[in-house]
Amino acid sequence: MAVSKCARLSGPLIQELLNSVDNFLFDCDGVIWRGDQAIPGAPEVINLLKKNGKRVFFVTNNSTKTREMYAEKMTKLGFQAKTEEVFGTAYCSAVFLKHIANLDGKVYLIGGNALSKEFQKVGIQTVGSGPDPVFGGQSDWADVPLDPEVKAVVVGFDEHFSYMKLTKALKYLDNANCLFVGTNTDTRLPLEGGRAVPGTGCLVRAVETAAQRKAQIIGKPSHFMFDCVVSEYGIDPARTVMVGDRLDTDILLGSNCGLKTLLTLTGVCHLDEATAHQESHCPERTGMVPDYYVETIADLLPALQG
Ligand code: PLP
Ligand code: CA
């Protein structure tokens, strides 16, 4: 039976979805955990899906952890998770530079240790991470020294982002042959109580504005994250569901890649945002309308335990 989009996933619909997919892609923050706390029931859901023969992958835009760090966090919170099931933007950026762009040179990195570790693992050296000295004025800016071996600029989450880093990135990117990669474009990182901090998208946009170039974006909704999963596991998009809390990244990624999509309301997006996209009948917004929604992924538990 055809179901209209944005349907509440409950009762027999849950079993119908479970029968129709072999693979689950889970976003992390807002879906399986919030900050350092697992969403209640989420570890049981993941573990039972695996027990029932489903393949589970974790797809996160957060570039501040390596695959190993994510697997360790998951294990600590009670999830059965393997390093190779994690597809974060730090790991996927390394895959892109090494295997798609065939980078032969160093990276000027605006980003943290997880990115440099993932790059090191594939044999790519980085320069630039960590704080820069404060510098004096316009005469200094013209003389910022460059490393001639740098052949790419990568922008991820960087708590030491500065005017100096922006200046260096601009100078590298003035060379049209220098690659330009952004891990993700999340604009804000929501905190408890309606508060938020600036996301990596703010840094990527700042560098794009200075360099007058567009970055190649690795994270959701770019299909590259899904391409990485497919190239390693050969999964069938038609038998895959993307579970996320964000319409403009997770749900749009799922729609872009021909996956089924499930919105969970434990994260940043509210149901009325999804219905507003649906009721707009605007072609550019239909990709942000999920097939299904749940209050929490724990709503899948009864069907998995049955
Ligand atoms: N980027 C950073 C730096 C974050 O801290 C987070 C969430 O904590 C995200 C991106 C979004 O991550 P996800 O794709 O798992 O929701
Ligand atoms: Ca999320």
TrEMBL record:
Cofactor: Mg(2+)
Family that this chain belongs to: Belongs to the HAD-like hydrolase superfamily. CbbY/CbbZ/Gph/YieH family.
EC number: 3.1.3.21, 3.1.3.48
Subunit details: Homodimer.
GO CC terms of this entry: cytoplasm
Catalyzed reactions: sn-glycerol 1-phosphate + H2O = glycerol + phosphate; sn-glycerol 3-phosphate + H2O = glycerol + phosphate; O-phospho-L-tyrosyl-[protein] + H2O = L-tyrosyl-[protein] + phosphate
Biological processes, Gene Ontology terms: glycerol biosynthetic process; glycerophospholipid metabolic process
Binding site for substrate: 220
Residues that bind Mg(2+): 27, 29, 245
Keywords for this protein: Carbohydrate metabolism, Hydrolase, Magnesium, Metal-binding
Catalytic residue positions: 27 (proton donor), 29 (proton donor)
Record organism: Acipenser oxyrinchus oxyrinchus
Protein name: Glycerol-3-phosphate phosphatase
InterPro entries xref list: HAD-like_sf (IPR036412), HAD-SF_hydro_IIA (IPR006357), HAD_sf (IPR023214), PGP_euk (IPR006349)
Metal-binding listed as a keyword: yes
MF annotations from Gene Ontology: metal ion binding; protein tyrosine phosphatase activity; sn-glycerol 3-phosphatase activity
Highest taxon above the source species: Eukaryota
Bound cofactor: record note: Divalent metal ions. Mg(2+) is the most effective.
Function: Glycerol-3-phosphate phosphatase hydrolyzing glycerol-3-phosphate into glycerol. Thereby, regulates the cellular levels of glycerol-3-phosphate a metabolic intermediate of glucose, lipid and energy metabolism. Was also shown to have a 2-phosphoglycolate phosphatase activity and a tyrosine-protein phosphatase activity. However, their physiological relevance is unclear. In vitro, also has a phosphatase activity toward ADP, ATP, GDP and GTP.
